[in-house]
Amino acid sequence: MKAFLIPPARSLIEAVAEHLEGMARDYSSCLVVFPGKRPSHFLRKALAKKERSSFIPPSIFSMDEFIDHLHVSRMGSDGRRLEAIDAISILYDIHRDSVDPLGTGNFLAPDAFFPLGMKIYHDLEELSIENVRPSSVKEIDTLAEETIPAPMARRLQTLSYFYETFFRIVDEKKYSTRSSRYRAVAAALERTTDDGRWTMDEKARNITINGRIELEPFKTIIFAGFFALTESEKRIFKAFMKKENVFFLFQDGPGMGDRLSDLGISIEKNDGRWTMDDGRKTRNDGPARAESTADGLSDPEICCYKSPDGHGQVFGVSSLLQEKIDRGEELDEKTVIVLPSPEALFPLFHQVLGLLPPEGYNVSLGYPLQRTPIFSLFRHLMELVVSMEGDRLYIPHYLKFILHPYTKNVYLHGRADLTRMLFHAIEEALTRQKTRKFLSLIEIEEDEAVAQLIKERILDGELGTSLNMMKDHLRTIHLNTIGRMRSFKNVGHFADELKGVMEYVYRESTARLHPFFYPYAESFVAHLDLLSRSLMKEVTFEQMGSYFNLFKRYLATGHTPFLGTPLKGVQVLGFLETRNLKFDRVFVLDANEGILPETKREDSLLPVKARALLGLPTHLDREKLMAYSFDLLIRGAREVHLFYVENDEKERSRFVERLLWERQKKERQSDDRGYVKTIQYGITLREKNPLPMEKSGEVIRFLKDYSFSASSLDTYLSCPLKFYYERVLGLREKDAVSEEIEGEEIGSFVHEVLFDYFKRKVGRALSEKDLDLDEMEKVVYDHFGKRYEADPKGEAYLLRRQIEKHLKDFIRDYQMPKCREAAVRIVGLEQRLDIMKDSFKLNARLDRIEERQGRTTIIDYKTSANRGYLSINFNKLDPENRNSWSEAIHTVQLPFYLITYSAVVGEKPENMDSLFLLLGRSKIDSSIELPLFRDERESAERFEILHAVIFSLLKEIVDGGKPFMPATDLKSRCTHCEYGDLCNH
User: Which of 133, 388, 562, 584 has the fewest CB atoms within 10 Å distance of its CB?
Assistant: First the structure.
């Protein structure tokens, strides 16, 4: 064995290439093992550069690939290789059959057990690969030399039971896991090198060694770039250390001395001596040596940048790359952008990589499947199916699904725009019927309103299309998506159906044209294929939602690898993907504490102290690995740019702190202000005041012919600019079907019920006999069934009960006492008025008009309870001060009704009353009345003031010399206004 310690500034790939000897450009007798997969591409390129001709490459493996190769090809193992989902299936069976299962009965369903099973499996694999005996887990309190708390002790005992039982089953059925393959290979290598010496307790593990491992075809074996080793890897390395044709190439960095010591290697940089664990020493006459760190390279140029947020980091990288492009610098595979966190990938893709040609970059990192558009498509589909009541779909969830970019872009005769028009027509039609929360697929496909909009939006402008064609297309989409999700035989069938949806979307929509769709789709299909072939495939659930829960929890552990061309263009890599590679230019984003290094604790059932006692790696070991990798990445570069977010919640990484401190010491500076650049936005945060909008001649003509309502005047009084956008331009926010029954819907429903209840009582005096509570209940039920559903459940049921109770209270506690006080006669209900007064068109709809003791009273129902929002503060109202009007008057509704109704019936407004009935009050009695005036005297004094205000507003609106002005109180009026963006631009 020969061991070499490579200085951090030197390329490990080049060092490996120098130690490979090929005969006539044939390296097939050489074997190279790296920790990961990526260095293999760079090694082949280095050999091609060295040979300048075609050649036969060496066998190059990642460590996992090498173990799999030995386990299958050299040891002849033909057993099933377990995936995580298979292992969890076995663990679930163990858990279910246990007399004392974890969490008692909380995890007895497979979907509920899945997250717990992942933790257990992860812990068992770590225990196994670190050669921890099951007895050690049982005896953890002895190792700790103290009493372990009872809940923890019980958990460890249960884990020990899982440990023994799981691997017994694995061995009996000739399965294998990653850890069991490592253990088996280590044992076979020890047997090969030491005549069968076995260092583990065979009874505890029940391992069967299938003979020796022969590696005779390889004349040179190189292990390169390793740092953190498991106990199984250490055993494997020590077995190889006894071979003369084996080379170990390590890269010098923080903590490497301890790692070499664990292997029994001591390298002295002065004379190159190295020592093995048996005490033998060898001079540097060809075996191991430490190379000099003096390789002619100066320290890298390091620049740090702080930003207030993640977008600032991306902006900083974009600016630096643009500068290099402008200077004509070559940006190739020697440039890397490192993303320790995947959140920055898509901002980077759109704002930075767009500066480069498509072949000018390569993205290779793991991206969480849960963040992908495919996952959101499946999530919407699953939410839709789970929320179904029988064969009826919950419309808000249905609209989310059909408006997903992948669904609404299914081709029809090669055109995706027809499907988009179809689904937006369905959206508009169902939004207009927003009170209908549930519909069946057939009802949607045959809906008359949908058909009418299809005719208007599609058929009138598209020759060659027909209504039947569009309906058939809709049915086909429903059949291949929602139709596949209606029932499942078992988990395997469920996974196959999801693959069917995935294949339909890929085959029939524009999805495959979207960036990154291929890696997403491949990962999803691979995960679903594993699920359909897993040991869990025969599991059956009673509840549909359980299949979806299992799927979401299964996919939560998955990542999609972006497998690009690693030797071409700027490299975009995750942090650990940079291992063993050397780059000239390095850009690191999110160099923040908690990300670099990641400081979260292990997702494990074993507490940190127990892990340390058992010899398992902890978060501290992970931080050491990241510190080592960061050091190599930085010291191997010529130019380094480190970006981090600095705000109240985030601080820069300790790695950045250390670099800055080293530079301060070297240059004798007391602070680091001169070393950190601040990324600032050229953004003005101060809001611009809205500008007035002048009235054109066309607008004046429109206004003079406009029919004004009380609500339109309220809008103008609140903000003339809002009146312009809403009433003149007709701009409205897009309606949507809400998942909840909104307050506006409830108000409309209550108006319908009260109209129906009182319509047969118009024209005569009301008596208590007319006010039947059972009749009110029937009216509420009838209208609720027509508008929503006849047999509501859940929230809808509670809402119906609440409305029924409240309206019964209204009849019993308000209307009946009113009838006892004095004669009440209903004159009209829901009366529509259209008049012309002083050259203005006015319109109104009065909820109720009644006669009380000879005086006409106009009543308006309000389902709110807010008196202040509906009242007029006459103390603040100054008729001569225009600015006081909007502050004093919240609504002109009641005086406006008096004006319009008096014009129709010829009665003076001062002789009439008007009031709001606040039906939203929790207590119903006479206090729900909110009159415009307290008495007749106040009415006589103040009505003329309100009359003058209303007609002054009307004259102001049509006056071409007075532009539409912004609200006088911008803070209160503009904060939640939907037209704010229009006003500020």
Answer: 584
